[in-house]
């Protein structure tokens, strides 16, 4: 190309929220942009960076890109402060009061380099950068790490309140079908709305925070989604009416795999991975195992934990269960474990503290996924062609699980129920009774996902457009 010798290499700052489910896809985006010849600075909190470099291969993985670098910024919390969902409010407050001014200074003073082209911030970060801050000169892109259907639901909550559809009027109102969410008429019940909507007062601060953060998405220069047209096309179209400059480039892990077909997956773990479960899976018959994981920040009381455990054993099916060390509240209490549970687990179960999830889902022994419906887990299951039982826990997950079961027909929705009988029944429904039906729809969706990240696919094209647009910004 003429004048090529004068072209400036674009330089992008990427900053995720310090959670596994946010760091994972943003590191994948960082790798994809680096492969496309863009220089990347990846910003972590010291806590995430320490765990990431301890338990994953990111340093060697990214060392092949000479201009790539990791930098850190404080989250304002003490190093030993818990980082599970229970402590989310502490984190948001400290990010706003401590991290926000530092980030602003960094962006204004050129801390990341005078060549910085743009920043891709976690889409939940609009609260970290003020739209009218004229001193921040670079374009800010927002990467919404939730599903498009949940983001669109958040966009519509304000109108639901105006229409008198919210607040939800108690437990007896939870199954009321919402007829007027544009583009999703008659899909959602009150119980499928993001968890912030489960309040009696619509002025609730968490609900208002979520509404405002979502509305402010339209202030981003552009918005990126880890999704694809064949899965969420109609909803993405709705969001484009408010955020016209939108890129749908997911599933990102599949896009990366398509670009690097001969490489092993990138390990971005904040926890130590226990690969022994892959050997255990090698010894199980095809499609016989239910894989159980509730992601990186879910916590549950001992009672629920025991219901899951009984249900899995009672199902009579094989199970591989991720029990994070910080997942169960009061886990180390002096509680006796019934002998039949120990025995059932020895016979048919295997537990790990953290699994290589993408590899586990791809394993032929796995026939289904009991998940909390985090967006990454959902996409990973979609790409692996594995149906799901959804026990959604918070936030966007409640919308995702409804779409998995009622729109995409990829599994069963178990939200708000946690008893051993239901767990056992649904595991059997997924792995045995309705196996063919679910495996067929899961295989169809997996094909569409893989097609979207290949040349000619929608996500492949949108990623190219993103690279071109960032490059144009740098000229
Ligand atoms: N994950 C993993 N091993 C595990 C459990 C989870 O690698 O044992 C990964 C999973 O593959 C996904 C991420 O952690 O990429 C969890 O993200 P998700 O959005 O599903 O849920 P969150 O943790 O944000 O609630």
UniProtKB/TrEMBL annotation:
SUPFAM superfamilies: UDP-Glycosyltransferase/glycogen phosphorylase
Keywords: Transferase
Signal peptide boundaries: none
GO MF entry, a single one: quercetin 7-O-glucosyltransferase activity
Domain of life: Eukaryota
CDD domains with a match to the protein in the record: GT1_Gtf-like
InterPro entries: UDP_glucos_trans (IPR002213)
Mitochondrion listed as a keyword: no
Family named by the database record: Belongs to the UDP-glycosyltransferase family.
Official protein name in the record: 7-deoxyloganetic acid glucosyltransferase-like
């Amino acid at each position: 190309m003429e004048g090529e010798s004068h072209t400036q290499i674009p330089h992008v700052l990427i900053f995720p929220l310090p959670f596994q489910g946010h760091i994972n896809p943003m590191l994948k985006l960082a790798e994809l942009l680096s492969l496309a010849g863009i220089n990347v600075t990846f910003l972590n909190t010291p806590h995430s960076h320490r765990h990431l470099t301890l338990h994953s291969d990111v340093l060697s993985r990214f060392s092949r890109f000479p201009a790539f670098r990791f930098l850190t910024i404080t989250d304002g919390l003490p190093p030993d402060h818990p980082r599970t969902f229970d402590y989310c409010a502490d984190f948001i407050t400290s990010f706003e009061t401590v991290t926000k001014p530092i980030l602003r200074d960094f962006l204004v003073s050129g801390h990341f380099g005078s060549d910085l082209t743009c920043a891709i911030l976690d889409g939940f970060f609009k609260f970290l950068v003020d739209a009218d801050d004229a001193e921040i000169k670079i374009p800010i892109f927002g990467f919404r790490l939730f599903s498009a259907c949940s983001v669109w639901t958040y966009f519509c909550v304000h109108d639901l309140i105006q229409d008198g559809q919210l607040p939800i009027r108690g437990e007896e109102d939870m199954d009321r079908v919402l007829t007027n969410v544009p583009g999703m008429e008659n899909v959602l019940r009150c119980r499928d709305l993001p968890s912030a909507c489960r309040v009696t007062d619509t002025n609730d601060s968490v609900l208002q925070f979520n509404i405002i953060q979502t509305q402010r998405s339209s202030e981003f220069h552009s918005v990126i989604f880890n999704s694809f047209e064949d899965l969420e096309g109609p909803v993405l179209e709705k969001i484009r009416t408010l955020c016209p400059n939108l890129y749908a480039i997911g599933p990102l892990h599949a896009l990366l795999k398509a670009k690097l077909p001969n490489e092993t997956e990138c390990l971005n773990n904040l926890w130590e991975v226990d690969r022994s479960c892959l050997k255990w899976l090698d010894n199980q018959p095809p499609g016989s195992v239910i894989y159980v994981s509730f992601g990186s920040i879910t916590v549950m009381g001992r009672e629920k934990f025991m219901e899951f455990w009984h249900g899995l054993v009672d199902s009579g099916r094989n199970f591989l269960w991720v029990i994070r060390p910080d997942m169960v509240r009061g886990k180390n209490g002096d509680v006796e474990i019934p002998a039949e549970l120990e025995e059932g687990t020895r016979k048919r179960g295997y537990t790990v503290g953290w699994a290589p999830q993408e590899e586990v889902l791809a394993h032929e022994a796995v026939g289904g996924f009991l998940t909390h419906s985090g967006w990454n887990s959902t996409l990973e299951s979609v790409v692996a062609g594995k149906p799901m039982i959804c026990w959604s826990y918070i936030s966007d997950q409640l919308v995702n699980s409804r779409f998995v079961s009622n729109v995409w027909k990829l599994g069963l929705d178990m939200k708000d129920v946690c008893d051993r009988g239901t767990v056992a029944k649904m595991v059997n429904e997924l792995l045995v009774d309705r196996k063919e039906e679910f495996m067929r729809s899961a295989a169809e969706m997996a094909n569409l996902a893989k097609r979207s990240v290949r040349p000619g696919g929608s996500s492949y094209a949108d990623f190219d457009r993103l690279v071109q647009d960032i490059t144009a910004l740098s000229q």
